[in-house]
Amino acid sequence: MTSRGDLNVECRMSNVECTTRWLMTTIALTVASGVTATPARAADPAGTAYRVGKVVTMDAADTVINNAVVLERDGKIEKVGRAPEVDIPSDYRIVDMPDHWLTPGFVDAHNHTAGSLRDLNDMVYLTNPGLRTLETIVPESELVKQGRAGGVTTVLLIPGSGTNLSGFGTLSKMGGESVDQMVVKSPGSLKIAQAGNPERYWFRVGRTFMNYNTRQTLEKARDYHLKWEAYEQQPDRADEPEYDPIWHEFRGLFRRDFPVSVHTQIYQVMMTTIDMLTVRLGLRTVLDHCTFDGYKIAPLVNETDAYTINGPRQYHFDRTERRMNGNAARWWQGGVRTLGINTDAPVVPEEELPYQAAMACWYGWKPYEALRGLTIIPAEALMLEKDVGSIEVGKQADFGLWTGDPIDPRSACELTVIGGKAVYDASKERRF
Amino acid sequence: MSKAETPRGLKPAARRSRFIAHADWSRPIPRAGAFLTALALALALTLSAALTLAADPPKPQPKPPEKPAARSDQAGDEDADQKEKDKDEEKEEPDRYLAIQAGVVHTVTGPDLRGVTLLCKNGKIASIGTDLDVPDEAELLDASGFHVYPGLVAAGSSGVVGREPVEDNTDVYGLNVTLALAGGMTTVLAGNTVAKVTYGTLEDHVIRTDAFVNVSYGTGSPDARRRLRDSLDKLRQHLRDVETYEREKKLNPQAKAPDDKWIRGPAQQHLKLLKHEAVAIASASRAQDILDLCELARQYGIDLVVRGAWEGWTVAPQLGRAGVSAIVTPRDRVTRDERYNRPNGSSIENAAILHAHGVPLAIVPSNTAITTWGVAGRDLLHLAMEAAFGIRGGLPQDAALRAVTIDAARILGVDHRVGSIEVGKDADFAVTDGDILHYMTLVRWTVVNGRIAYDKEKDSLYQHIRPDEDRDRPAPTDYWPRRLGAE
To answer: I want to staple A378 with a disulfide (CB 3.0 to 4.6 A). Which of A173, A251, A340, B192 is the partner?
Structure first.
């Protein structure tokens, strides 16, 4: 790992030239290593040791370790500790970045760029049960590469908000050469949009009709689920219900295997969301956007287990109070602690996820809580907290190495690691 | 405002009274029939009568701009008559003092100064020091514990001040004025005018009109290129002819002066470029367009500013050698196109590479308006954050700050007035609660022309965010909790 490249124009030559140089170097090295007579090919390193200036672990004890070492093996975090206390096995590759911060890879609960953008909104019906984004994923696309330059490692790729119910989202890593390598979980969530965008459907529809339509769609799905559940509990009591591919995937939703992601904002609309989805239908709810005066329902959110993932609007100019309200700050003041940040990429570029946190702080939030809102909180919201979201032994080795406080726009992500593999290395190419 | 800095569109009478500035006779009267013409003439007569009345004798209000006698350093070319008259008018107008007890003063052009007092007199910085004689009548601003920066300079804006002519259209009580001030901005380029963000007054609002001469010289418009070169060639010949004539006139008084009646419109502007009386500005993002502009600047010896300059980093040495300045947005990103057999595209390092090759930079955000619709951080309100992104790309901290202060001012040709904290310059400050490039720093006061134009605690906009009573909180960089001992 070299330090920040000096401003040398040649090192930004075309890929062809870079590749040529890289090939030449590799050949030279291979020849050299052959000459030094290692009989067998040098074994691949068994793991990697990251020697860094600071690890912000984001664990339950809020541990921050200065002068730390993180050991990675088989894509998992093997050990985290102060440098003098961690023995680095001799067959480990060492990544020495003594001034850098190591933070968990960021998790964006509202992304549209891990798949093809043109398939974002299939606005066939006002509610489209059965659609899903799994088929639209594009591994190693330019947008994916750019996103991880901002330290983002896990995203929930969801369909757009052009209709009330636009399909199932896919939990995906920002690395991997095939869809299988990328996908963590499908369905990762059900996407529902309340008010705003879906009102544009056809010649416009109003909120009363939209709510009725969403409600009756979900009630059908619930009835289907309940029928099957009754049958599974007592198979001898009833005939096997008819299998319906449209409703079958909804069963996971009602079993709370995955959440519902709701495009929702504005006080009244958010109240409807909580009432309909969280309270009456009992769904695990991730409230996305949560902007404008939505923060007024904080007490309602606190009564439920809903997650509040705020963004990309980070402030709201309140005309009645003549105030620049920081949305995240107002939710926080309202006592909401399940508070995260999203980008709605490409509305805000995926790599600017930490900058969304910076803006939340500008408008009154706190940096440490904001960093939680980029990592462990969305990981919990998406039910991935056992695998990602913090630097703890046994979790996946997903992290970003930053030149400083990752929320500060002045800091740069220099290395992004997903499952132990470097997927972005600023010393080779700076994408942000 | 001295006479030398009078906005060109205004006549002396109008200058004295901004409220009749709209009576500008150079504008055409709409011709919609004899009746309309007659009506317009009648209106004009009435207005001119009003103008005469308003101008002579001078009425006590509207308040004339204050002109302290101490301003002699910049008023060399002012005719004595006018000066005397102005003095008479303002005899009863007392000097206006503001004394700021500062924590750290970031002068930008000099060292940072701790614990000094800034004494401003009549809108200018009169002195900086520790044991100053502060007049009793001075307004005091206790900013100890705060950072004082020169007011930020935005080399591009829309909707902060009015459209041109700016002094006729600015709403000095508009929300955007206060928001810009809350963002630390005191000077903006609006259209082709450089204006101050003056709250509640139009006094000393405009610094400079006709800041640039727009030139179009892209590879996409060969005709515009040809026209520009033709015009410059012709004018260059004209300048040579004038030179010859000047020489000849000494020998032969009957020598005929070269015809200059044809020099009007664009040619007039281009002549200013050749005479270094004006600076050219051109939008160019691709390397070829930038190189062609450099060549143009070199060939005709004109001063040039390039706006955009996405691929500037690929031709940074040429830009540097041609002495061309650039107005850039660090976050402008263009994906590399492998079809080109040359480095191309743009990344966040662009600004840093241009800076390393000596290209003077002004930084502007991608959206030069102020937005209150909330997709935050890409608009003019967060100008300082755009500069911070420059640092992410490798731009040194001081260069990033300069790119939104003195370097931006220099590019706009107003660095003699704004952009740094120096005695004699305008008293424009952004007083902040921390490093202005940090994401948790808010502006506490903004001072424009020696007046407190924005006070966070007195304005509801940001009052509730980190209020003064919370100031015993740790500094932003120590916000990180549970930091283990330094190792």
So the answer is: A340
Which chain A residues are within 8 Å of B335, Cβ to Cβ?
A: 142
Place of tokens 């901290």: B397
Regarding the domain with residue range A106-388, which homologous superfamily does it belong to in the CATH classification? Answer: Metal-dependent hydrolases (3.20.20.140)
**Which of A142, A368, A432 lies at the smallest CB-CB distance from B481?**
A368
What domains does chain B contain, in order, with CATH numbers? 3-63 (no CATH), 213-418 (3.20.20.140)
Please identify among residues 321-340 of chain A the ones whose CB lies closer than 8 Å to any CB of chain B: 321-324, 326-327, 329
Minimum CA–CA partner of A12 in chain B? B343
The strand pairing partners of B431, in sequence order, are B148, B445
Alpha-carbon gap, residue B354 to B350, rounded angstroms: 6
Chain A residues within 8 A of B480 when measuring between CB atoms: 56, 64, 367-368, 405
Contacts of B348 in chain A (CB under 8 A): 412, 430, 432
Question: What ipTM did this prediction achieve?
Answer: 0.89
Tokens representing A231?
């049958």
Say yes or no: B456 contacts chain A, CB-CB below 8 A: no
Find all residues with CB under 8 Å of B225, minimum gap 6, and list them. B216, B217, B218, B292
pLDDT in tens, chain B (487 residues): 444 444 444 444 434 334 333 434 444 444 445 555 555 556 655 555 554 444 444 444 444 444 444 434 444 444 556 656 655 565 678 999 999 999 999 999 999 999 999 999 999 999 999 999 999 999 999 999 999 999 999 999 999 999 999 999 999 999 999 999 999 999 999 999 999 999 999 999 999 999 999 999 988 889 999 999 999 999 999 999 999 999 999 999 999 999 999 999 999 999 999 999 999 999 999 999 999 999 999 999 999 999 999 999 999 999 999 999 999 999 998 888 889 999 999 999 999 999 999 999 999 999 999 988 767 788 999 999 999 999 999 999 999 999 999 999 999 999 999 999 999 999 999 999 999 999 999 999 999 999 999 999 999 999 999 987 765 554 444 454 444 334 3
What global pTM score does this model have? 0.84
Nearest-angstrom CA–CA distance, A239 and B183: 68
Calpha distance B417→B268 (Å, rounded): 27
Residue of B nearest to A68 (CA): B487
User: Which residues make Cβ contacts (< 8 Å) with residue B88, sequence separation at least 6?
Assistant: none
**What is the Cα–Cα distance from A296 to A298, expressed in whole angstroms?**
5
Question: Is B347 touching A (CB cutoff 8 A)?
Answer: yes
- Report the 10 Å Cβ neighbour count for B33: 9
Of the CA atoms within 13 Å of residue A326, those in its CB half-sphere come to 24
Whether the CB of B479 is below 8 Å from some CB of chain A: the reply is: yes
**What are the angstrom distances between the C-alpha of A213 and each of A128, A280, B394?**
11, 15, 52
Number of residues written out for chain A: 432
Write out residues 351-380 of A within 8 Å (CB-CB) of B: 352, 355-356, 358-359, 361-364, 366-368
Of A322, A327, A364, the CB nearest to B461: A322
CA dihedral A116, A117, A118, A121 (to 10 degrees): 110
Measured from the Cβ of residue B78, the count of other Cβ atoms closer than 10 Å reads 16
What is the 8-class DSSP label of residue B285? Answer: -
Residue type, B39: L
Contact A321 B460 (CB under 8 A): yes
Q: Does B314 touch chain A (CB under 8 A)?
A: yes
Looking at chain A from residue 301 to 320, which residues have their Cβ under 8 Å from any Cβ of chain B? 312-317
Residues B391, A409: C-beta atoms closer than 8 Å: yes
A66 and B349: CB-CB below 8 Å? no
Judged by CB atoms closer than 8 Å, whether chains meet at A355 and B316 is answered as no
Contact A367 B440 (CB under 8 A): yes
